[in-house]
Every structure is written in C-alpha cells, then in structure tokens.
From TrEMBL:
Residues 1-20 form the signal peptide. Lignin degradation and detoxification of lignin-derived products. GO terms for biological process: lignin catabolic process. It comes from Eucalyptus globulus. Belongs to the multicopper oxidase family. One of its GO terms (molecular function) is metal ion binding. This is Laccase. Keywords: Apoplast, Copper, Glycoprotein, Lignin degradation, Metal-binding, Oxidoreductase, Repeat, Secreted, Signal.
Length: 562
C-alpha cells in the first residue's frame, strides 16, 4: 500500500515527552457510502467509515499518537483544532503550512500533545474542503484527582455539520477555477442526521432520552463549513460553562450563537413536563451573500409514560438576521478565573498589531471568463494581502532555511488608514496576492486588533489561531479607537481559540508568544479561507532548550518541492 510514514519514533521518544498517559488511535481516511436525503450510491470521504468521525477521549496532559492512513482518492491532512501542540507544529496539519498532504495509500503518525486544554475540542481535515465530512470530537477530561467545576449526571456530544450535494473538493476546485461562488450546502446535520425538515429524510433525527430531574452536559461542536448558528431547546434554559477547551463563568441563556470552529460545553437540566421537545440549529445570517437558510432539528425526549406521538414543542430562537442577539450573546462570555483555573491576561504589551479583514475581488485574467461579481474573481485578505498557499510546507522551509517559499514581511498595520466600516465604494477592492508571514519574537506579549471592513459581502468572521488560545479583551461595532483600550476586560475575558469578528466591527485579542513554531491564522468560513483570508505567524525560539522547537519526525509526508 505504498510508503507508510512516521514509524521511526522510538519508544524513548514516545514516553519521555509525555506528561500523562500515552494513547494510540488509528484513523483510516476512505470513501464511504452514506445515505442522505434523496441521494443514492453517494460516497463521501470519512475516517473509519463514520460521519461524524471517531471520538478521541483523553485526560489533560496526555499525549496521543494517531496513525492516519489515507486510502482516499487524493491527499489529505488532519488538524487537532484547539490543541496548542507546544513546540511541536509538525502534526498541526494545515495543508502546505505545517505539512504537505498525506498521499493516497500512505500513512503519517501524528503526535497530539495535550497540556493545558480541558473540555471539548475537535479534529478535522485541513486540506481543500474535506473537513465537511472528515471531522470528529476530542474529549479532554480533568486529570486524575481533580474535578469539573460544575456537576452533571450524564454527557452527550453533539456535532453540527453541513451536507453538500456533491464532492466538496470538486466544489471548491471549480469555484477557485472560475472565481465564482462555491455551492451552498443543502442540509445541516446533527450527529450525521438531517432531522425532519428535509425531503427524503425518512424521519432520521438525532434524539436524546433524558430522565426528569437530571442534568446533562452537552459538548457541542460546530464543524460546519460556512454558516454560523443559533441553538436552543424548547422550553429549556441552557447554562454555558466551557468553550474551546477552557472553562467559563456559568452563563444562563435560552440560546447559543456558535460559529464554525467553536466548541461549547452546556448544562441542561430536564426540569419540564414529560414530553418531547425539539432542539434546533438555525443559521445566523448578516451578509448579502447567498446562504443555506434551512434548519436542522433533534429531539430532547423524556423517559416515562406520555403521548409520544404529540408534535414536539419548538424553541424560540432569534431570527436568522438578528445581529443584536448574536452580539449580545458573545459579549457576555467570561473566563471562570478561579483559583484552579486562573486567567493570566497579558498586561505589558510589547507588540501591537492591527489586521484588517476583508472580502475582495480580483480582476479576471485576460482571455478568461470569470463568475465572480461583475465578471471578477472572489478574493479575501488580511491587511490587503490575499494569502497564496505555497506548493511546499512553510514550516519545513522555515526549519530548513529554504528561501523563496514565503516572505517575512506581513505588516503590523494596514497599508493605509481609511473609514474601514463606512462607504468604501471609491476604493479598489483588489488585494495583493502573496505568501506573507508575520514574525513574532519568543515571549512577546502580543495584542492583535482585528478590524472588519465594508468591502464586498461583509459579515461576521470566525477567526481561528493555531498553536494558541488567547484572551478576547475587547469587541465592538465600527472602527477601533485607541480610547477603547481603557474599556478592555483584563480581569476575566474568555480564553478561546476561535472568535467571531463582528460585521463591520473590531475584536482585540491578547496572548503571550511562548509557543515557538509556524501557526496558521484564518477565517473559519471555508469560502473565505479558500479565497485568501489567512496568514501565518512564525513565533521564534527562546534561548533555553525548553523554548525551542522539538525535532520533526523522521518521515513527514513528502513535498514535491523538497
């Protein structure tokens, strides 16, 4: 079956680095027939034949080895979303950023190093659009001898996903070739089930049977590609207690707003009359771009004697375009900031960075017909630079001092100042296309202010940083002003890895750059990431041995240019 990569790790290396237990999983990426809606004889890419994929279960501080074998039709990579991978970006996964794809009929042994993470994270493919069906949960339990900061009786994992009518790699390949919009998804699913709102669904619906009086922990993962979602359960309150592998101060609410890439830990007490209640995901839409405005539902049903044929009650969720409710939910998030789980917010900032986030248009090349707005090509950018993915790994080029792969000149501020959220019609929408990376010194205290702009189809952007969690110290509408710094929350801001940048607004994050390596930054709406709404942080090494990159595995997936 071709060359199998990564087995050269010795037992000494396997065990000396691990802080907790060493766990082993086997992933086989392959095409699998999945019956969905009215489709027949359809195959999609999966791991181990499952949609969603297999659950990884570990404790805080464990080290996980996942042998990923690819027998699918094209190369893939796997990312461990929210795992910091301290000093070891070699297994982080973004295609041609930290590795080249795992070729078909080969394997790559990936090391996943857990340190401070505790709660719910997830893994997913990070090449082309294959994460639509290649994804699954990572459940990180408290280390032995410690407890959750809240109580519950049972726990369940809920994965929201988007389903497409054809192969997702073909969808994005076609869109990038023509410059047009990629296909919309045709359905949303909860744990692989579309619910009863779709034709040919045959009543396939995820359901949870609960006991009156018990409290349930829901680990909710948004693996969807391009749509943010509201979530609620009819007549039941939710208590949000964790997000992105870290604890929050309990937030009581009757709905969530969750973006692609985010995970949320939610307590639900079964305290209503015996019956059946819909739980529903419905999209949040704040853009003029085309969207999938369907919903998906599951059932929260009580055990006991009652009329099970009655139509379940529906939750009262915010309307699709309710920007106010989406924002009001997000600004309430606070870190737990307890003795056991303190917030350590950087306060002596040594590096201030401002990054504008834009949806752009590029001119159509000569002698080509393009399907973007007014015959242009869709594009996107950070600081007016549309990221061009190189043909070989940036990490390997950096580590081996290979020139010509990237430029280390990504700017600390936009190329020029304008009214970012005002009328931009007089400004050109084309961005500079290049592979630019942002260099950061080890141990700097970094603040990045992300500024939304009014170019193109502006909307909320879920921005994700690999290799780090960070504190969201401020957020607001309009253009950022230095006067807002005095209003930052530096006591208990949420500590997360993916945040929603408000449409035509700003968000400020802080972190200490104490994890050397090559780390991807991108919008988690995949159409925007594919158009270039990305960059790379390269965090340098410190002077001490434990501040330097760990060596790479002997066998990385091959890059054609190396």
């Amino acid at each position: 079956m071709g060359t199998f990569l990564g087995y050269a790790f010795t037992l000494t290396l396997l065990f000396c680095i691990a802080q907790g237990k060493v766990l082993h999983y086997d992933f086989v990426v392959k095409e699998t027939p999945i019956d969905m809606l009215c489709e027949t004889n359809r195959t999609v890419l999966t791991v181990n034949g499952l949609f969603p994929g297999p659950k990884i279960r570990a404790h805080k501080g464990d080290t996980i080895y996942v042998n990923v074998t690819n027998i699918g039709p094209y190369g893939v990579t796997i990312h461990w979303h929210g795992v910091r991978q301290i000093r070891y970006p070699w297994s982080d996964g973004p295609e041609n950023v930290t590795q080249c794809p795992i070729p078909t009929n080969s394997s790559f042994l990936q090391k996943v190093i857990l340190t401070e993470e505790e709660g719910t994270l997830w893994w997913h493919a990070h090449s082309d659009w294959t994460r639509a069906t290649v994804h699954g949960p990572i459940i990180i339990l408290p280390v032995g001898g410690t407890n959750y900061p809240y109580k519950f009786d049972e726990q369940h994992t809920i994965v929201i996903a988007e389903w497409y009518a054809r192969d997702t790699k073909a969808i994005i390949d076609d869109a990038l070739a023509t410059g047009g919009d990629p296909d919309l998804s045709v359905a949303y699913t909860i744990n692989g089930q579309p619910g009863d709102t779709y034709p040919c669904s045959d009543g396939l619906m995820y359901n949870i049977t609960v006991v009156q009086g018990k409290t349930y922990l829901f680990r909710i993962i948004h693996s969807g590609m391009n749509e943010e979602m509201f979530f609620g359960i009819a007549k039941h309150n939710l208590t949000l207690v964790g997000m992105d592998g870290a604890y929050l101060k309990p937030l009581k609410t009757n709905y969530l707003m969750i973006t692609p890439g985010q995970t949320m830990d939610v307590l639900v007490t079964a305290n209503q009359s015996l019956g059946r209640y819909y739980m529903e995901f419905s999209p949040f839409v704040d853009t003029d771009a085309s969207t999938n405005d369907n919903v998906t539902r599951g059932i929260f049903q009580y055990s006991g004697s009652y009329n099970h044929s009655e139509t379940p009650a529906l939750p009262e969720l915010p309307g699709f375009t309710n920007k106010s409710d989406a924002g009001n939910f997000t600004i309430q998030l606070r870190s737990l900031n307890s003795k056991e789980h303190p917030a350590t917010v950087p306060t002596k900032i040594t590096r201030n960075i401002t990054i504008t986030v834009s949806v752009n248009q590029q001119p159509c090349p000569t002698n080509k017909t393009c399907l973007g707005p007014q015959g242009s090509m869709h594009s996107a950018s950070l600081n007016n630079i549309s990221f061009w993915t190189p043909s070989i790994s940036i990490l390997q080029a950096y580590y081996n001092n290979i020139s010509g792969v990237y430029n280390d000149t990504f700017p600390d501020k936009p190329p020029f100042v304008f009214d970012y959220t005002g009328n931009v019609s007089a400004l050109g929408e084309a961005a500079f296309v290049s592979t630019e990376v942002l260099m950061i010194k080890y141990n700097e205290e970094v603040e990045i202010r992300f500024q939304g702009t009014n170019f193109g189809a502006a909307e909320n952007h879920p921005m994700h940083l690999h290799g780090y969690s960070f504190y969201v110290v401020g957020m607001g509408d309009g253009n950022f002003s230095d006067s807002y710094v005095s209003q930052y929350n530096i006591v208990d801001p949420p500590y997360i890895n993916t945040f929603g940048l408000p449409k035509n607004g700003w968000t400020a994050i802080r972190f200490r750059a104490n994890n050397p390596g090559v780390w991807f930054v991108h919008c988690h709406l995949d159409r925007h990431a594919s158009w270039g709404m990305d960059t790379v942080l390269i965090v340098g090494e410190g002077p001490n041995t434990d501040q330097k990159l760990l060596p790479p595995p002997q066998h990385m997936p091959p890059c054609s240019g190396l």
